[in-house]
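This part of the workshop introduces the protein records we will be handling. Getting from the letters to the tokens is the skill we practise here. An example says more than a description, so a record of this kind follows:
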Amino acid sequence: MVATAMEVIDPAAGQPLEDSDDIRQIREAVRALCADYPGEYWRQKDRERQYPTEFVRALTEAGFLAVLIPEEYGGSGLGTGAAAAILEEIHASGGNGAACHAQMYIMGTILRHGSAEQKREWLPGIARGDLRLQAFGVTEPTSGTNTLGLKTVAVRDGDHYVVNGQKVWTSRAEHSDLMLLLARTTPADQVEKRTDGLSVFVVDMREALGNGLTIRPIRTMINHSTTEVFFDDMRVPAGNLIGAEGKGFRYILDGMNAERIVVAAECIGDARWFVERASGYAKERVVFGRPIGQNQGVQFPIARAYAEMRAAELMVRQAAALFDNGRPCGAEANMAKHLAAEAAWHAADTCIQTFGGFGMAEEYDVERKFRETRLYQIAPISTNLILSYLGEHVLGMPRSY
């Protein structure tokens, strides 16, 4: 098994930050659970474009999807580092945590900005698994990652808001009970700041489906259960507004940092899987009377992929530590996502090159994981936008767009 980094220097404390005993136990438990869902399980789901219901149910029953929910609401009350460890191990075991990872970072918006009543209403059910909060309605066809340019509107009408608009790439909408929705409640030309006028709502899709909400699946190159959703005079109770009206953009920013961190951890898991598979195959595959791993042209790219993965892992852990300590981590979260996605993609390419023709065969799982990890070059945010963020906000260069 490919080793993982066990410590990173926290610049705030100046001391090594290691996995706690709890995190180590979580990693072992996740690996044991994933052993019941081998490659054939994931190949079948990919082949049939099916949602991994059994796997998600097992994770839920084991309490892993409630890791960030406070104990008073039925969760474990742990931090983002624990969530990242869970998702990393899923991917390192050959699975795909994208089927359920959104619940971890979406829930944080309710936890940090919801009212006491809203927390009591939704969090215990999410922790038990009675409610799935998997859908995040933000991206739109015309605005893409320009969140401030979204056009979905919510207009107050008595005790409800009436929502009209469209979202795209709303993954898991068909397999979620609740959706966290970002909509414009004040026209853009009537706000003082560009970041004002957007509000966050919790939509109960069980009630809304067929009553103003339409979901259409989008078939993609991977089994990602993604959709586009349409709102046609959909009514949302005013009590489902999270926080103050018009301040929603600020509320989801924390969630976006958490999203980058946990997705980066998934990329680290992918990179571990690819490096382990590639190095194992290179030691066993004999051509021209010698193992192919003896050839520098095969050995060195694998070693380089391993080094890139370990370096990216340090940034992921630092970003998670900063986030869990309530410190600014925008730069670190973005760098973690960028470096981990790059490391995973380089490891994927190296692995398929090492396997040669067999890398294209479904039974080895390399081609499936190759397709899956390619997504993270463009989602949940593209590498180009991360570089733009770093150039402007970290290095102080002129805005590039």
